[in-house]
Amino acid sequence: MDEVPHPAPDVAPHDELRARIDQLDRLVGTPKGEEMKRLAELSAAELPESTLSDLRAGRRVPQEATLEAFVKACLRRAKELRVTVPPPLDDWAAWQRLREAAARTRSRDSSRSTGSGTAALSPAAFVPMAKLVAPAGLANPPVLCRRFVGHTEVLSWLDGISAGTAYVVHGLGGCGKTTLVAHWLSRHPEKYNPAWWITADSADGLNQGLASLAAKLQPALEHSLPVDIQSERAVQWLVKHDGWLLVLDNVGDPSLAEPLLSRLPKGRFVITSRRATGWDRFAVARRLDVLPLEEAVELAMKALPPGRRVDLDGITRICAELGRLPLAVEQAAVYLAETGIDACEYLNLLAQYPADVYRSGGVGWSPEKTVARVWAVTLARLASDSLTIMVLRVLAWFAPRGIPRGLLDGLARRPAVHDAIRQLGAHSMILVGHGTLDVHRLVQAVARTPGAAAVADDELLLIDQARRFAAAALRSRMPDDPEADPTLWSTWSALSPHILAYLDRTNPSQDEPDAEFMAYQISRFLRGQGQYASVLSLAQRSADVAARLYGDDTLPVTDRLTNLAEAHLATGNPSQGLALHHRVLCLRRALLDERDPRVFQAQDRLAHAYLSVGDTARAVEMHERLLTDLEQVLGPDAPFTLIGANDLVHAMLEHDVVRGLPLAENVLERCERALGGDHPQTLTARHNWAGASVLAKDWETAIPLFEQIIVDSARVLGAKHPDTLKAQANLAGAYFNKGAPSKPYPFLNRSSPTPTTPWASTAD
Length: 764
Fold this sequence. Notes:
There is one protein chain. The chain is mainly alpha-helical. Helices cover about 60% and strands about 5% of the residues. It has 33 helices and eight strands. Helix 10 (about 255-265) links the parallel strand 3 and strand 4 (about 270-275). It is elongated, with a radius of gyration of 35 Å. The chain starts with 12 loop residues before the first helix and ends in a 26-residue tail after the last helix. The model is unreliable at about 1-10, about 30-35, about 115-120 and about 745-764 (pLDDT under 50).
């Protein structure tokens, strides 16, 4: 590549600086428009978007930090493209010297324009700022977006602004802060004068906005004074006048606004920012949340062309999937309108090509205003601390709400993790609660999607490291047994949405032991709680992955196949469950001693499967033989022996009521003596005895028993546990069979299942 020529000696330093900026800009070689996006991504911590166009146009000598950010971003981009940057463009010290010379020259030029050149100005140009009167209706509101809905409470809150107050509307990028304030301002077109809007994402932007106000107050000096002097003149005018309002939009840091507000203590300020903290010293802050679902749907409908046939359910699903974020909802609706695809196809694209969809705005949209870009600046600011980004990437694998902070234990030293959480919360990337964290689902999606908002060269590796840590963290916090101990169910309930979210966001073909074990255990827990929607798919996933990891004919696989068989039985496919239980018993007999408890368990489950397909005689025969073996090997009062006894009672009552009645009473006495009154197996035995009493038409025994079972089950297992609901239904059935009206009962749930027989055991 040819060396970049040096400008002639008589070229003014400011012009030479502008020429070198243009040379470096062209050397990077990125297309116009995309160039702005890329440079902002590479140096967003020091180079806000609003400064880029001014820098390229050479409107003023840039601040040193701004120039440094631009130069280093271009050099980094050149390195990525493997383009050689010739001297002096690659020498930051040379850039510094040239900038200082340009600044001195521009300062002398400004002095001349306000010195000997002042004679050409009219006397009106030098009216003191204190005596200047603002023209009526002086305002510069942004273009009003016609697609605006909701946030009535925040609009009313802004209505209460008074002299000497500053209101801050903060929130996640894309939640509609700027649009909200613009609409609020449009409701009061004559209330404030001037009502001046400043894009204050940088010190340069704030100064430029104030200078523009001074120029409108005194047009004769618009082109005669440098920006810094004009900015100061605007502040002097604001100090001496009232009735005005300043909107400082997109303030990146509270420290940027605080000096101005401290000089104008009687003013009115409305500030928008992604920063959630640091305002309490000088302003009143309020968080702007995402839209309620119905308002998000309304916003989407406004973006669709009139007369288009609309799949309202599909639009609702899109809004829910996008977390009701206004920017994302509007972007999706415009995409639907311009491509002509339906909601189902959009959701499929979002699942298969998330990075592409997040980057795709409407025709004429700025690339900076897409979901993929809206958080890139914030992420780039945070990228200097790799732990902060890693914390966000780990959180991206959990459910959006109620993430226990303990899931981050071990990621780094606790103070460092706490500081990373604080930084993410301060930048509105997460919501910090008491012991839990919330992350918007689209922030999660961007954080775990390669290419959606790249902030590191080794992005794929870092995302995978975060995924592995998330899996290990979830597994380490899972209690041992999801079925046997009710005291652990609250822990399972808290973890289950995060386990399910992780499994939903990962590919089963890539599952490792942690993920496989999560699928196995969470399917057992959900089945035990009667939440069958995803039980079968989770159990199948666990069985398939275990076979891949451990081999087809291994003990871990028999556990997974047992779980899969129970899932089939619970979801109405008893023949498949029976076949799987047969296979498990054969495998365990081949791998274990005949008297091993795991062989006994396989026999018990197979007998229960026969009962499920209606072969009660065979079920009773198998349970009787098994109970004899259990009593001999484990003892008559061993917990597993009593499980087998309860299962025999259940089968016997369906096969031979006369033999079942005394057995049910005997097993209940044994459970109460050996396990206590609140053990789940004791509750099962009590339920069996109540059912036996119904079959014997002993209402005086059955009804009080069911009433007590409801109370005990609700206390021990939970009011919504399947056993509690079944007891409610069986109580109603007992009243019905007795021919008496059932009395109102506090635990009775109208949605409880209706018994198909006069009674039903919890073994079903």
